[in-house]
Amino acid sequence: MSASVAVKNIVIGTGRPKICIPLMDPDPASLSQTVSQLGELPFDLVEWRADALKNPLSPDVRLEALTLLRRLLPRTPILFTLRTAAEGGLANVNPEEYEEILMDAIRSGLPDLVDIELSWGEERTKRLLFAVHERAMFAVGSRHNFKATPSKEEIVHTLRIMQELGCDLAKYAVMPRCERDVLTLLDATLTMKEHYPDTPVITMSMGPLGAVSRISGELFGSALTFGTAGTASAPGQLPARTLSAFLQQLSVDAG
């Protein structure tokens, strides 16, 4: 039996993969406009990418945007992410700045989940995990490789480290260079499902070549997938409506 994480009105790790919409707005005003246009789109949670802000280092701007998002989406789980340039994001920060920005978000009590990049080291990850859990939030350990697809063994090993450190969800995104790279990612995901189900995992093979990995999570074991309502946060993301239709058609419980 695979583990699951209950956040507000959703359970991540059971049934179809949950759909997360990334919000890549540069300021609170455009963020408000984007949220107002979500309308009837099929989604379960949102990821607020703080690194997309024009001034992500400003505590006041971050707090204003996060407070606004919480007010507009009171019942929707919010994942706070500061994606750094080294992992395909927009934030150019040093280790201390990264930790302080995440700590600010945690101390605010506004997000439900916080993304923690494993590449900053285990000690920093442990401190952030402690703070997340102290506020009864959930941590998503993450690793992104925008250049290639590591071996199955390396992917599994990294996801296992996230589990052992105490991350509530473990995420790994890779870039495929050929069809077999996509199979490598799916094989690693299935291995986690079959042998290490203690923590829900989130995996994806990016770009057009890896799009199949974004719709096959229920079968192979990825608990969450990202669908767009505007600007994509990573290559290969599908529109939320398209993604939802695929997930319904491919559901193992569909018929």
From TrEMBL:
Asked if the record carries the keyword Cell cycle, the reply is: no
The record's section on Gene3D superfamilies has: Aldolase class I
| Active-site residues (renumbered) | H144, K171
Domain of life per record: Bacteria
* Matching InterPro entries: Aldolase_TIM, DHquinase_I, Type-I_3-dehydroquinase
Similarity section: Belongs to the type-I 3-dehydroquinase family.
Listed name of the protein: 3-dehydroquinate dehydratase
Q: Source species, please?
A: Candidatus Copromonas faecavium (nom. illeg.)
